[in-house]
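User: Here's a chain of 935 residues. Predict its fold as tokens.
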Amino acid sequence: MITVERQSSGGKLVAGEVKPSLRRFFVPAMIAVFLIALCVRLYANFYTSHDNCAFVGDANEYVREALVLSAPVLRSPEFIKDAISMIQGHASAEALAHVRATTANMTELHRAGPLYPLSIWGYYALFGRAVSFIDYASPILCTSILSAFICVLIALTTKNLWNEKAGLTAGLLASIYPGFIFSSGTLYSETYTAFSISMLCWGVSQSMSENKPGNFVSFLMGLCMASLWLTRPPAMVLIALVVPFLVYARWQRKAIIPVVTFFLGFLLIILPYCAFQKVAFNQVTGFVERSATYNLVMGNNYSTLGWLAYPYPNVKPAWDGGAKYVLKYGIQHLNESLPLQIDKVLRLLKFPFSDFRTPIGPVKYAAQVYVHQIILLFAVIGLSLGLFCEVKNRADLKRVVARLSVLLIGLHGFAYLAFIAMNRYFLPSCPVLIIFSAVGMVELVRRLHQAQHRSMTITTIFCVIVLMLTLQINLVPVLLQNGITDNVSVAFILSVAVKAVPVACLGVLLILLQLSSREFVVKNSPLPARLQMGVTVALLLLCLPLTSFPARASGRRFESSIVLDKPGQKITQQIDCDRTKLPADSHMYLFVDVANYSSLDGLQFSVNGKKTGAERIPGFSVVPDYSTYRSDSGGIVSWEAENIFDCLSVAAGSSNADVRQWYIVPLDAETTRSVVNKGSALVEIEKNNFTTSTTYSEFAYRKNSYTLPTVDLYSWEKTFYAVENVQDWADPRYDERAKRLHTMLLNGQKPAGASQVASVRLVAVPNLGGVESSQATLRNSIWQSKLPPITAGGNQSSVVQLPTNLPECAKTGLLLLKVSGQIKTLEGHPRPHMQLTVRCNEGDKASSLYISPWSPKVLASQSEWTDFSFCLPLYASQLPGKIAKVLLTTTQNDPREPLIEAERFEKPSQFQLKNARVDISVLPERPLAQGFVAF
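Assistant: Prediction complete.
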């Protein structure tokens, strides 16, 4: 990987030469890159313990569409004949009716387009398999092969535009890049579009480097351009770039035929798509409808931080006004719009594309973050040092034009900044990112071997290391908690300054490296050197706000985590309640912000000196609108919000209960009266074991005004696709401004940050049903039962049937099923799981099944007896029909996951339960019922 400098006949050193052996063995090296990349992907997807992500999220929709397109009726002679007559415009009424009936289930294809679902069908057909949600091996194998080819195309493009060393480095980087590895294990369209982008970049590099006109290369570019046109709408702008480039490249050789072949390849895909539109939707546009206006409005909705929201907000004014309304609103609310736009850049760039924080074999999510950030930093260096390098004469400027074209192809991914931005959307642009990262690495190594540049290059690498370290820290709470300052504004300014120093130093060093180099001079023309200097200055001006400003994507600006991991540690918080605002005869609930379900382990809650908190209800389970439900073809009942979270959390090896959220603790009648009489609540949260519990706190920064997440508005997108916290899930809730007049004590002492308060809230709800609040506690259970001792593992399971003849109050309120007991590991590494299922009968209809998604994914189990307790909410009154059976199943692993790969190569695991019991009680109303007041 070392550049060899040789003397020319004139006695001058010629930079950028490579060893003849590397040039000779470049083709075998590319075969090695492909095999390395393929082996890494096959290992990650088929030979590691992980939860199956193949069909999750949008991939589920693509596979459904592939099922539709694979239907044999679409290939029948009768349908083909009627479809052709419809396209020609002389179909009979019977033929039109036949076509309409056959294509009636293709509505989803209007938004997604048929090209990628057809590819999925092709993956299955290649191995003679039928499209299904059970067999994922065939499409994932094909996606892995496609992803490995991306690495080869990246290497070839870099070699054509720079040299063999940069090409080989780029290929190896791409083979281990976490984003490509993870995406090869899912059926998202990102791998497909990344392949098309890589082919397009390779075609651009070939157009400038080969001696022959390259008609076939141009034809392939046309195919790739059309596939991007139909799968990635922002890529439509690329045709305005690629066509002028082809005309320029071929005009130099007086060959217009390659331009013609490019359009032939493009039309070869677009024309059949237009025919498909005519048959399926009776319209011809040539475009895929991706709800651009909706994504524009939601992506710039500052009250929801640019994410989709549930319950769905009213965006009709913005919808009617379109882009004009969004622009006007953004200018009027610059305080909210500017941080959001900075944050959207970081959502696209800063983190790898492992949507669900999924490990890749032994490589944990945090390590993937570091790999991605290192590649980003070296890409900046590559742009600064390599875009105009190795330009020895005016003929080499053509290669610079090709480099600029490849750069612009990569920059098209930033089009999502105008819409909803999430990290995986930038994956198709990552081939270009890796190309420039490899160039940056090679350029720094080359300068390390030049005596005049060595010391400056070492200093540059040192700045990169310092910048990497500072990027990982949310400095605002660090400065406040360690007594450096008590002023939040001062901490904010210091944080910006500290992070700006290594960025500025790196930019200055890159400029100095350019000034001391002669590689940007073309005879007597200073243009390349000036252009390269302009690129470096522009990068510096962009990187300063992106890396220095404490954006949400770097961790909440004024939020800090509170970790309790030793018995006796305590958080004490005084919450002042305005009695004039309390609803009459109200029920009260304590809301506590924790990282996940396991963080509740070992926490004891007290309010005004009275212990409480036997029930800890997952906050999201009581927020959705339960007036309607959905049922799939298999009779599985679910509610929309529950189902969306469950589809994503299961793929992450987690559950809805393990997502960061408010956990709700009902207060009994005595505690409620105490709070009302005193007009305040002294909340104490004490740790009583050695497990780790993570809660959160906030610092006031506007006249004692705190930005806290709302308790009733949240987003599944924000949870799984945002990047607020490297280690945990992002907080799914949106923000609200709240006046807080209380203080917090940690272990009896006031924190260094004078304005710090824990994210603990008190919510009062009107007594709508006239039920005593004492019924909100399990001390007055309507049903209790002890469970027999259980020993389980492997395929063993234990099933307990709960009562179905519940009292009248259960028909209107929220049922709480508290499951508690002791658990112990007997052998191996068990993943004990409890699942609640409810079967209902709807008269003469087939029975339906509700599977609660609110069980913790895994009960914490150790070699010694350990207490466990969790609460399952159930809206029995909203289930369809009459409850026929309620079952609580204890098993190894979540039985909803037949494809789970966990503990595949380990010996059988066993665990044991004792003193287990189920207590059922009723909450008289939803904790966030109409008219609630939060303090």
